[in-house]
Amino acid sequence: MSEGPVYDPGEDWELPGPNGVPRAGSYGGAGDAGAGFAYDEETLRELMHEWNDLANEFASDVNAARLIAITEGPGVEYASLGNAELIRQSGSALTTTLEEREAHCRAMAAKFQAALGKYASAEDAHSTEIKQTGGSL
């Protein structure tokens, strides 16, 4: 993992410094670490859960939007039927949008889960290396 400050979602972060070089934990690079963000294991886990929670909220909203998408008019005259058709179209568009948002959130959660796996692998490799040299954790 890269050296430097670790992103904390609750902390107040500054914009890059006066020379325009982002510091570790902010997007754009952390010295030799390359472009990206640096997170600790706890933050990765928290972000994964937050993205999944948001996806669950979108999934719940999809169910409500489906009710809008099957709206029927109160009568059989043109005005009721036409209004109901517009409401159904709106509900259908809303359902599609919410499903896309849910999929995006699930994909983001999966990325953080994959990062957790890489983090754990790196920790195991470093721990093994230290033990091989006679050190202890």
Descriptive overview:
This protein is mainly alpha-helical. Helix content is 61%, strand content 0%. It has helices at 41-69, 78-132. The longest helix is centred in the last third of the chain and has 55 residues, at 78-132. It is rod-shaped, with a radius of gyration of 24 Å. The two termini are 17 Å apart. The model is unreliable at 16-31 (pLDDT under 50).
Strand-helix topology:
Elements: H1 41-69, H2 78-132
Helix pairs in contact: 1-2
The dominant shape is rod-shaped
What class would the helix/strand composition place it in? mainly alpha
Low-confidence stretches: 16-31
Question: What is the averaged pLDDT score?
Answer: 76
For the secondary structure, the number of strands is: 0
Radius of gyration from CA coordinates:
24 Å
Work out the oligomeric state of the chains in this entry.
Answer: single chain
Count of runs of 4 or more consecutive helical residues? 2
Proportion of β residues? under 5%
Descriptive key words:
mainly alpha, 61% helix
Briefly say what this structure is:
This protein is mostly helical and 137 residues long. Helices cover 61% and strands 0% of the residues.
